[in-house]
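Researcher: Quick test of sequence recovery. Tokens follow.
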């Protein structure tokens, strides 16, 4: 601003001198002075523009730091995802360990009006390859002797038939008094092949009981 005022005063003195001396105006001198005045007038704007540059550089540097931070965070996320452990594979069944099937056991009793038959357990012995069925029976009729487990017919998972004609157990049942009874399923059963008995049919007193998909608890 100071140099601008000096050049303006100088321009006025030159013009006044030329006018008083009745000399023609020197256009080249006037043009130089006008250019000088325009350049000096532009100095504050250049200074303002330069003063704004550091602010923009700061913002760029700041954004650059943020960008580097975001890259580091992204790298950490990628490393975290790559270090996750893969899920363990599902166990494969072998000949020594049978596949345990989902049990959907059913029990059919045509004498429900006077006889209750409930499943308790079907326990197998791996060493002996035998299984034993345990039931809970309640007689709602008069006191009577009951033969349980006779005329047995059963099938294992290999399709082998297990049958017996006689009744292994005899009970003196009292009216409305529940009692437990157990009997062995005839024949040998492979514990590595059979985990459920697909079908078992036997007598409880005068009734034929049918059971399907009975799970075996091998021990």
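Model:
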């Amino acid at each position: 601003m100071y140099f601008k005022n000096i050049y303006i005063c100088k321009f006025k003195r030159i013009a006044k001198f030329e006018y008083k001396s009745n000399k023609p105006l020197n256009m080249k001198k006037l043009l130089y002075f006008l250019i000088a005045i325009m350049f000096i007038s532009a100095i504050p704007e250049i200074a303002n523009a330069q003063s704004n540059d550091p602010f923009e550089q700061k913002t760029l540097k700041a954004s650059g730091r943020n960008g580097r931070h975001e890259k580091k965070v992204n790298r950490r996320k990628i490393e975290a995802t790559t270090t996750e452990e893969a899920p363990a594979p599902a166990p494969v069944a072998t000949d020594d360990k049978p596949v345990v099937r989902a049990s959907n056991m059913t029990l059919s009793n045509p004498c429900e009006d006077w006889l209750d038959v409930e499943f308790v357990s079907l326990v197998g012995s791996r060493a002996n390859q035998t299984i034993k069925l345990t039931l809970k029976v309640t007689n709602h009729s008069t006191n009577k002797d009951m033969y349980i487990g006779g005329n047995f017919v059963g099938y294992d998972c290999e399709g082998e038939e297990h049958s017996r004609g006689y009744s292994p157990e005899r009970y003196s049942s009292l009216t409305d008094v529940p009692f437990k009874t157990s009997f062995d399923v005839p024949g040998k059963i492979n514990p590595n092949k059979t985990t459920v008995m697909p079908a078992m049919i036997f007598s409880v007193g005068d009734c034929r009981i049918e059971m399907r998909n009975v799970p075996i608890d091998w021990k």
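The longest helix spans residues 27-82.
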